[in-house]
Amino acid sequence: MTVPGRRSSTFSRLLRHGFTDPSAAERLLDLEELSALRGDPVLLDALGGTADPDLALRGLVRLVEAQPEAERPALTTTLLSAKPFRDRLLGVLGASEALADHLTRHPLDWQALVTYEAADLHPGVAEFERGLAEADDPVSLRVAYRRCLLAIAARDVCGTIDVAETAAELADLATATLRAALALASAAAPEDAAQCRLAVIAMGKCGGHELNYVSDVDVIFVGEPAEGADEGKAIQAATRLASHLMRICSETTVEGTIWPVDANLRPEGRNGPLVRTLSSHLAYYQRWAKTWEFQALLKARPVAGDQELGAAYVEALSPLVWHAAERENFVPDVQKMRRRVVDNIPAAQVDRELKLGPGGLRDVEFAVQLLQLVHGRSDATLHSGSTLDALAALASGGYVGRADAAQLDEAYRFLRAMEHRIQLYRLRRTHLVPEADEDLRRLGRSLGLRTDPVAALTKEWKRHAAVVRRLHEKLFYRPLLDAVAQLAPGEIRLSPKAAGQRLEALGYADPSAALRHLEALSSGVSRKAAIQRTLLPVLLGWFADSADPDAGLLGFRKVSDALGKTPWYLRLLRDEGAAAENLARVLSAGRLAPDLLLRAPEAVAILGDPEGLKPRGREHLEQEVLAAVGRADGAEQAVAAARGVRRRELFRTAAADLIRSYGTEDSPREPDPGALVDRVGQAVTDLNAATLAGALRAAVRAEWGDELPTRFAVIGMGRFGGGELGYGSDADVLFVHEPREGVDEQEASRAANRVVAEMRRLLQVPTADPPLLIDADLRPEGKSGPLVRTLKSYEAYYRRWSLVWESQALLRAEPMAGDADLGARFIALADPLRYPAEGLGEDAVREIRRLKARMETERLPRGADPTLHAKLGRGGLSDVEWTVQLMQMRHGWAEPGLRTTRTREALAAARAAGLLPTDEAQILDDAWVLATRVRNAVMLVRGRPGDTFPSEPRELAAVGRYLGYGPGHVGEMVDDYRRITRRARAVVEERFYGA
User: Fold this and answer.
1) Cβ pair 507, 544 in contact under 8 A
2) Which of 921, 907, 957 is nearest to 937 (CA)?
3) What span, in angstroms and rounded, lies between the C-alpha atoms of 762 and 774?
4) Alpha helices in 189-230, H assignment, sequence order
5) Global pTM?
6) Could you say which of 106, 306, 351, 581 is the most buried, measured as most Cβ atoms within 10 Å of its Cβ?
7) Which residues pair with 304 in a beta bridge?
8) Using H for helix, E for strand and C for coil, what is the string for 704-765?
9) How far from the centroid of its chain's Cα atoms is residue 747's Cα?
10) pLDDT for 198-226, tens place per residue?
């Protein structure tokens, strides 16, 4: 008897044996039905050895209760006397609630676990066919299938078979089931069966002999007419048989379902015929198939129906599979497929995804399959449908490092075992790691983690996922380094031909040059070479993920050659997690950023500093530039220093723009393209303003010392004044001066003109740094007018002679350098002109519309596509800006929000003031942002400005990547551009032209 307030000894024993609810377990053990087992001294040990002792005990009680009275002694006697049976039965009951349900419905099926002979330990298709032989309808087939599944699960949870053998047995059971289902379908329609030959080809995990407990079974059907039969009628008959087979396996009955049979991997997917002849299959794959379809065929295996036809199918298609890597579109297809397929996973589930998440099963499977496609054309030992077998073959052939293959093998087995046990619990198709502690505890214990199973499971899972994530890319690239490096005796290397094939498959246009770069970077025994060998496998993957991998690798070699002897460079790339990936993105995204970096490679340090990619403000930049100018000897040296700061800041801006546009493993791409445009526009404007301030100081100091005889200001115009400069924009300016007290006006004018001439000369002196071109054509009288005027001259001109376009140009006027007070007075002079009281008159509106229409017909370059010209084309920058500026001139006097030099701010103010509907404002904003990004992209990619999409395919692809379009989607990019700008033009027609 138990003393009140004290736990019974049984309670304590139950706790020690892993029960989480000992009180409930005590009550169950006291039930009359378990009286025959209660005294068994090893029962608790056996229950405690299961994944979930509580679940196992509940299942055992249900099973005993379900036994017919006459059969109950047989069960209990066998349970007491046969340890292998006890371990099998309780192991299954502790791991699978669904199989406990099956045993409760079919209480005599426990007898399937009694036999323990050599043949029973490793059954094949023939044994499973015998197990299903008595099934004569879909319901009895399900019962027989679950009985066979019960035996597989018992061998699995007891460790009799490993994860690969479990997957193979599940595939063999699926094969036997498909054959049984086809036999049932044929028996139901003997006339159809007589008319045709039908072969069932297993695909996916079933074809690869690596099936899960619960998975779609992917198949392809091949049909031919029986001798003397009409082909059309035979294929119709075969289609009816195939459809019936699918229903037999997939439909839900009183015994549930087996698994869905999925035929969507067939030619044309669900839009194509369910059954085709062999010649029709062959014609499709020869002419229309995509790369992923050949990848799927790696696992094709005839499993049911006409074996001769199935073998002929595999034999006919096999040569096409192993030459897929030679197809013209293989590289872009591979680049598309290599981009992670996690976009469709809900954000909350990404970290729990065993299959598709980062470091998941798909990473291993894809890497292995791609290497098979690349190297299998010349090495038949790689022709395997099994991931683990193919991985072993790749390692044996030297295509994958042995240590990497061993680590991946271990990680893949662990992740597959997790997937198996998760699915086994309720026999549901899922790849999500559960969240509840009780589920994690059962899962961890089922994998042998008995000490703190939840923590141990999480640690092991994360460790293996990290291994996969780290090695998944290195699998492709590390052997490439071995191909050009000194290897230890006995190590196998890729041949130059195999290395070239792999580089081609990964997008490198010149594999020979790439191998030379790899050799130059990684050869030797120095510490530098050793670090490079560590870095390069990962960098090569990032280069391959770009539109121009060759340029990325060449740029990396040039930067490494320039900085290789500095101690911090390789240490930065090795130790600062983001620096290496940031550098890879920048070097492979186009010409501008690498050119800026190679002029002063030490700027690479920016990429490793968390604050390094943030733009410097104008005040900070101006202080730095003026300090550098103050230290310099002579005007040219001073402006060279200012231009050096500008080059560094241009690189910082371009690098940040590229990294935010592409995204990295640690930080996703910026979702708001408008924010990217604003950041670039402000950053380039600020650094150009600071550079002008430095050039002005240098020019003044060289001839006049500290003070010019006249006050002098630089007024930004156009995109410069609007804070909207792109990488390739000139600096539109006006120059204004005002003689100091006592200074002759002519002397002041000569000084001001000499300063302007010297500034322009200094900013264009040929050096390693990009020039800053100053454009003063927006001044009064344009190119015919004086380059610099006094404030009074501007005032007189605007009062008497000003044309409407000149008032419109003043909408963007903003002081940028020089005398701040003079600049502010110029703006005060401009305000009444650009925001006229009571708005524009109708004559002025007509004149603006006439000028715009004339510009559209005269200024668009000859031969340019008006639907794709970002500046002057339909719905482009000019359309949007003139529409906004017309609203500013008409309503700016009454709406303070419109008094801004910035296009997007003015658009937002027009919407807020009710001058423009929200949807139309958004349409114009989208078009303006997109056109601006296209111009920025062209400059980043080509290294020179342009207003239209490049025609060279690699350059066009690089523009697409910058704009967020993956490989193979440039057509979609161009279509989107045309659609967005077409909608903008419709708004312009109504709001600007009044159509």
Assistant:
1) yes
2) 957
3) 11
4) 190-195, 204-207
5) 0.72
6) 581
7) 200
8) HCCCCCEEEEEEECHHHHCCCCCCCCCEEEEEEEEECCCCCHHHHHHHHHHHHHHHHHHHHC
9) 63
10) 999 999 999 999 999 999 999 999 999 99
